[in-house]
Amino acid sequence: MEQTLAAERLPLLALRGITAFPGMLLSFDVERTMSVGALNAAIGGDQKLFLVTQRDIGTDAPHQEDLFEVGTVCTVRQVLRIPGNALAKVMVEGNYRARLRDMKDETPYCTAFVERIEEETYYAHTPREEALIRRSFSLYEDYASLSSSVTPESFLRIVDSNDMGKVADYVAQNVLMKHAEKQMVLEELRPLRRIALVNRLVSREINVLALEKDLDEDTRDAMDRAQRDFYLREQMKLIRSELGDGGEDDGPEELEDYRRSLLKYRYEQNFVNQRLETAITAAQIERYYDSHKDNFQLTVPIVKARFLNISSDSPSLSVLKAKMSSEDPEDLAEADSIAYSAAMRYTDYGGGWVDAVTLSREFGKDYGQLLSSKKKGFIEEDDGKGNLSIAYVAQMIGEGETGPVEYFESRIRDIILSTRKQALLTGLERDLLDKAKRQENFEIY
Q1: What is the pLDDT of residues 295-327, one digit of tens each?
Q2: Which of 12, 19, 200, 356 has the fewest CB within 10 Å, making it most exposed?
């Protein structure tokens, strides 16, 4: 149960897209006038300030309703100021969670009236809790092997800890997640549920990173092919030139290649200059979804499901079925921990929506046939070799219905970004034409 201690008033600094956790070091840039003012007030006082995350990173001057309720009271450890620039780089250390009760918009900074939240310290002491914390270590190592932002060695700082809340906070701080997801971790005050939540979020991030790696490899292969083709074309031009053949047709092609190269260069320069504008907020995604709902009808059913492949005579089978069909985060965390050693495969697909085709591949069957065999949420298939494939379908949205925004979020993000890129490219072509007209550096054929 949450307990609050004496309240205090502190300088408030609103964070965009990042979250501060107790006991962790966090480095970030401070540039907004109100943020610089809060930092200066903290440095001029007892070094303490209240860090809280904005709900929408696009809000420049947040009020209390624009901020999450739970944040972290921190101590300023280091400040690096950049000469001739308002920007400052700051490093803070989280002290404890606190709840925002009131916010005053003052000049030159905002202050927060906060109440410290007394947290429960919970150490793993049962085999299942020990398995849960080991699962966190394993997931973090898997994440580090796929991500360039962390190293497996960074986990050595707490590898000997069995404080479940501390481990959860450390992993959440260092793994790349959406700021709203990190906020969920910050607001979960029960250590056992917190580490279960973190494990599910990290598992999903690992799946996403694995997909990104596959896409990067495909892109590299395509670029290698393109470079090889370009080299071969240049060699062919050289050979034709030496043979005195093909000189007339190369002019327009070379001019077009030059035009495309110039466009590409200017496009890249403009894209770098406008990189901050490519941040797509949750509110923008929601607005696009709401105004184009007819475009988001499902062509196949989607489900929230958990899949298990296990020996039919496993002593853990009945326990796993009970846990994986629960909606209690603790039960789901236990299912993940038990399955780690008892099952051949277990996944909850990161807790998100997946299409029925993906689920049906686990069984090697048509999704229509598969879903028709569902009984009380369960789908079971015996492979005839002593193994069971089991799925529990917690939620399902049928074909022809409008899918939820979270299912289409990645697609909407790509659409918005693609629209911006196309508008930028069109503008660049128009700029080139206008410049050529001004310099009279073109001919009309």
Answers
A1: 899 988 999 999 999 998 999 899 999 999 998
A2: 200
User: For domain 120-247, which CATH number applies: 1.20.58.1480, 1.10.357.10, 1.20.1250.20, 2.40.50.140?
Assistant: 1.20.58.1480
Residue 88, SS3 per DSSP? strand
CB contact burial 348-379 (16+ within 10 A = b; e otherwise): bbbebbbbbebbbebbebebeebbeeeeeeeb
pLDDT digits (tens, 9 = 90+) for 154-177: 777 777 788 899 999 999 998 988
pLDDT at 445: 46
- Tokens matching residue 339: 């399955």
Q: What would the DSSP string read from start to end of 293-317?
A: GGGGB-SS-EEEEEEEEEETT-TTH
Rounded distance between C-alpha atoms, residue 25 and residue 74, angstroms = 9
Amino acid at 228: R
Predicted pLDDT at 98: 95
Give the whole-angstrom CA distance, residue 143 versus residue 153: 12
Q: How many residues does the chain have?
A: 445
Bridge-partner residues for 347, per DSSP?
307
AA identity, residue 245: D
Give the domain 3-118 fold: 2.30.130
* Domain locations in the chain as residue ranges: 3-118, 120-247, 298-397
Contact indicator for 96, 107 with CB cutoff of 8 Å = no
